[in-house]
Amino acid sequence: MSSVTTAASATAPAAGHQELGRLTLEWFAAAARDLPWRRPGTTPWAVLVSEVMLQQTPVARVLPVWEAWLARWPTPAALASEPAGEAVRAWGRLGYPRRALRLHQAAGAVVERHGGEIPADLDELLALPGIGTYTARAVAAFAFRQRHPVVDVNVRRLYARAVEGLADPPATVSRRDLAGVAELLPAEPEAAAMTSAALMELGALVCVARAPRCPACPLWERCTWVAAGSPPGTGPARRPQGYAGTDRQVRGRLLAVLRDAHHAVGADLLDQVWDEPVQRARALAGLLADGLVVQLSPGVYALPGL
What we know:
This protein is mainly α. The protein has 16 helices and three strands. It has a three-stranded antiparallel beta sheet. The model is unreliable at 1-13 (pLDDT under 50).
């Protein structure tokens, strides 16, 4: 096991913190959303796909794409057998399409290294291309029912408020965060995995970034931030990223043409989606650099592998 794995996963839960986890788990039993990737019998591959799709994307947008993806590619081998461009096409308008390439790369590695089966070992999950600390821990916990702290933005915010008394968490997750959240988990792996899901759900539905629903929170009477009077954050306000007029919007329009075409596309057709040539060229260059688009010949472009 890695040093981070050892430090964060094997931490003995502190009694006071473990009570927070117990209360969250009780709340989850009554309040959890019925999401298909949480249902019994869901494969580790389906869990991995859900975790990658849910990054920075609302559940409502993910659901139909996840269902279509698993219907077409129910195993890593099924996805690995097709060109990467098909994964990009099937990703549709979920946003951040490099995630589709990462899933395709991970599927290929699973077939090559693990006989087509998602590995249960955390270090082996971390070694898959495009699979980071959060995703690996989420798969280990939710697919294999292991005791690992799973810390996304919602869990980090919940922990910052309930335990640290901070309105807003740091922007990145540290080893200290993993060790702290591990203290909220019960010792038994199955219960710990359920508690990890419960913490994420509570952060997503109740302990939200703006206007948290504190009276509805099962941790309200034990929350350090509430006990301190719910002081405002001290850091700069985080403004949501704009989209209209950005390179990201241009990239999305260029990629939409290639997804819909099902064949190579000439530059003249791409030129029609955005009037400003410098920004359009910059966006196309970014897509090429990211591997989302390939140039077949001068002025002719396609999705990778197609």
